[in-house]
Amino acid sequence: MTDQPETIAERLQNAFDSLTRAERQLADSLLQNYPVSGLASITQVAKAAEVSTPTVVRMVQKLGFSGFPDFQNALRRELEAQISDPITKHDTWVESAPDAHILNRFTDAVMGNIRQTLTQIDPEQFDRACAMLAETNHSVLVVGGRITRALADYFFMHMQVARPGVTHIQSMSNAWVHYLLDIKPGDVVVIFDVRRYENSTLRLAKMAKEKGARIVLFTDQWRSPVHEFADCTFCGRIAVPSAWDSNTALMLILEAMIAEVQEHTWDLTRQRMEELEGMFDRTRFFRKFT
């Protein structure tokens, strides 16, 4: 089973503790508008981070690159992967497809995605996000994109049972701006955004942040531009042998988060579950077999 190579952002995060002060300053600068921030000339990259050009050279070599041109070539490949459409993704996989059955190839890719995703999760950040979502004195708003709205809907349905004050923003509607009216400082906006990142989602994040909201972002290994405004970011590996991306790794994170939030709010959640079951019985929503 072959894992996908680490992104440069992941290399920076993994190496951060071993970097010098100037190199950390450079890493922060690169991650602010990643990956575009690293595509300027070496002089411009150094100037933006307020470090010397030798610092840039030393850091990219610490990341495993032969030099700055090699580093930029890797960034360009990542950028191409971010903006690739379904046809391009399909052709990329077909060119290197082995003879194994698609079930085995797809499963290997998904398992590799999960393993690499979990190595990048910061448990303290995960716990902090769960604690934020469990604060019933603040509202939670959930939004996804064209594809990720399925994840947003799944997360919303569970969180709505676990606690009150949860709203699903319908991002496909032009009325999403209306949801910003009632956002208060400290409210939590959960955003799902993967490659071919959506402009409306970025605008929503910026405007919610301006109103004092805290943002939890679920994204891919290349990181949505929304991460600039996020308090907590969770990156899931999504590439599989298909024209479409896989959300399995992201689903694992959000299901674990649902389980943890439920533990924080269990007394309240249990009451809500019991009340909901009573309403299901009254409406005969589900078939009874006994």
Automatic annotation (TrEMBL):
<dbReference type="InterPro" id="IPR035472">
    <property type="entry name" value="RpiR-like_SIS"/>
</dbReference>
<dbReference type="InterPro" id="IPR046348">
    <property type="entry name" value="SIS_dom_sf"/>
</dbReference>
<keyword id="KW-0804">Transcription</keyword>
<dbReference type="Pfam" id="PF01418">
    <property type="entry name" value="HTH_6"/>
</dbReference>
<dbReference type="GO" id="GO:1901135">
    <property type="term" value="P:carbohydrate derivative metabolic process"/>
</dbReference>
<dbReference type="GO" id="GO:0097367">
    <property type="term" value="F:carbohydrate derivative binding"/>
</dbReference>
<feature type="domain" description="HTH rpiR-type">
    <location>
        <begin position="6"/>
        <end position="82"/>
    </location>
</feature>
<dbReference type="Pfam" id="PF01380">
    <property type="entry name" value="SIS"/>
</dbReference>
<dbReference type="GO" id="GO:0003677">
    <property type="term" value="F:DNA binding"/>
</dbReference>
<dbReference type="InterPro" id="IPR047640">
    <property type="entry name" value="RpiR-like"/>
</dbReference>
<keyword id="KW-0238">DNA-binding</keyword>
<dbReference type="InterPro" id="IPR001347">
    <property type="entry name" value="SIS_dom"/>
</dbReference>
<dbReference type="InterPro" id="IPR000281">
    <property type="entry name" value="HTH_RpiR"/>
</dbReference>
<dbReference type="InterPro" id="IPR009057">
    <property type="entry name" value="Homeodomain-like_sf"/>
</dbReference>
<keyword id="KW-0805">Transcription regulation</keyword>
<dbReference type="GO" id="GO:0003700">
    <property type="term" value="F:DNA-binding transcription factor activity"/>
</dbReference>
<dbReference type="InterPro" id="IPR036388">
    <property type="entry name" value="WH-like_DNA-bd_sf"/>
</dbReference>
<protein>
    <submittedName>
        <fullName>Als operon repressor</fullName>
    </submittedName>
</protein>
